[in-house]
User: Which sequence fits this backbone?
């Protein structure tokens, strides 16, 4: 009897059960609902109603948009700039509507409200990603996960889209499962972008990016960020190689049906580095941060793979226990047979 195979099959079936899928989806949607609510609060900061929002948030993002979107980006700035306060009220209202619809649907167990909130999240997120963030540099060779690529808002879209996928897409035991493997694919993209972009290997690559984030960091973070800027400027090749290797390692360790525990430990370290030095916690302490950055959303995307890993870890010794039980039952049966034979008189 192949008890090891049975144990793995039971683990896979449990991880792919309708109830497990439901819990994973609910956890992820609760996460983005609360993050949308936080984003609406951040959008309501006083500086967001001034031209500082255009100069410090919109223009830097649009500057790295692909040329095909150049005219659209210019049009966006021309429309928003003269009436920034009114537009910002609209931005807040939309994010509150998304968060309120999602939270209302979750609290009332109303799938129609949840789906409406997710559809609003997808439409709004795609619009912001294209018109407001210039696709976060993904198509221009300037995108790096260190500072948030492929963009927080597109991660909202990805999570919302995964919830709407039918359960057959959530076969967590399959050779490839998009909800389980998307995080690893994102880190593979990050590693490729980090390696293939020549600028990241030079002294004005990662150092300049971190320096830019330091300008939006609170005073208690500046000294530690400045030290990293100095080191990265002096050793650009070493820093970029280490970061790219870490991204690639996370992708390889977490991809597939058997994600590794060490992969999640490395993921935590990489996300901390990205969130602190690369994104200054999304600039939420500066009065100009529109969201807490990509790491919280990447953590939500890690949930399906984490569930698969936890199910595997909890079932690790199940085959041995089953084997022991089978051996004990067999031994007891042998003793009973021997006793019955002893009682039979010789023929």
Assistant:
């Amino acid at each position: 009897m192949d008890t090891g195979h049975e144990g793995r099959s039971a683990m896979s079936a449990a991880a792919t059960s309708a109830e497990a899928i439901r819990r994973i989806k609910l956890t992820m949607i609760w996460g983005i609902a609360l993050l949308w609510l936080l984003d609406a609060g951040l959008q309501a900061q006083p500086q967001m109603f001034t031209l500082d929002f255009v100069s410090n948030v919109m223009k830097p993002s649009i500057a790295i948009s692909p040329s095909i979107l150049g005219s659209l980006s210019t049009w966006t700035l021309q429309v928003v700039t003269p009436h920034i306060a009114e537009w910002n009220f609209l931005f807040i209202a939309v994010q509150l509507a998304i968060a309120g619809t999602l939270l209302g649907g979750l609290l009332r167990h109303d799938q129609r409200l949840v789906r409406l909130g997710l559809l609003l999240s997808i439409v709004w997120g795609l619009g912001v990603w294209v018109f407001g963030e210039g696709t976060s540099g993904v198509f221009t060779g300037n995108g790096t996960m260190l500072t948030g690529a492929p963009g927080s808002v597109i991660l909202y879209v990805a999570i919302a889209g995964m919830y709407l996928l039918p359960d057959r897409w959530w076969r967590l035991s399959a050779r490839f499962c998009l909800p389980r493997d998307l995080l690893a694919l994102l880190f593979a993209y990050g590693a490729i972008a980090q390696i293939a972009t020549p600028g990241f290997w030079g002294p004005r690559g990662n150092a300049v990016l971190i320096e830019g984030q330091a300008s939006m960091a609170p005073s208690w973070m500046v000294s530690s960020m400045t030290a990293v800027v100095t080191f990265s400027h002096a050793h650009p090749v070493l820093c970029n190689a280490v970061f790219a290797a870490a991204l690639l390692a996370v992708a390889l360790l977490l991809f597939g049906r058997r994600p590794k525990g060490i992969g999640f430990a490395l993921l935590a370290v990489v996300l901390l580095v990205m969130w602190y030095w690369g994104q200054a916690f999304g600039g939420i302490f500066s009065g100009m941060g529109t969201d807490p950055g990509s790491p919280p959303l990447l953590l939500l995307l890690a949930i399906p793979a984490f569930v698969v890993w936890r199910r595997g870890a909890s079932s690790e010794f199940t085959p041995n226990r089953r084997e022991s039980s089978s051996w004990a039952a067999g031994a007891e049966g042998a003793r009973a047979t021997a006793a019955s034979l002893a009682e039979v008189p010789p023929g």
The CA atoms of residues 107 and 114 lie 10 Å apart.
